Amino acid sequence: MAKVSISLDAELVVEVMVLAGVGSPQDAVEAVVRDYIERAHRTEARIDVQDDRRRHTDPPSMSPEQG
User: Fold this and answer.
1) CA 53 – CA 50 distance, rounded (Å)
2) Cα→Cα distances 45→23, 38, 40, 51, Å
3) For residues 19 and 17, what is the distance between their CA atoms, to the nearest angstrom?
4) Kind and range of the H or E element at 19?
5) Neighbouring residues of 60: CB distance < 8 A, sequence distance ≥ 6
């Protein structure tokens, strides 16, 4: 896998390390990025399920009084 080098504010990285409970700046930032990607995939999956439910349910029928 290709590697990318970036510069980040040291305070930001230290905070991520503390929150992630990781001792290495590289591991902490990688954990945050992986978590972000996993959350995005879960969100996409929930949206797909909701869309499928909407597609497979009949639209509400209108009574003669409503139409």
Assistant:
1) 5
2) 32, 11, 9, 10
3) 6
4) helix 10-20
5) none
**Residue found by looking up tokens 């209108």 in the block:** 62
pLDDT at 9: 96
The gap from C-alpha 62 to its chain's centroid, in whole angstroms, comes to 38
| Sequence spans of domains, the chain | 16-50
pLDDT, residue 42, reads 82
Q: What is the dihedral of CA 27, 40, 18, 7, to 10 degrees?
A: 60
Q: Which two tokens stand for residue 2?
A: 């290709």
Mean pLDDT by 10 residues, the chain (67 residues): 92 94 93 92 74 66 64
pLDDT attached to residue 35:
92
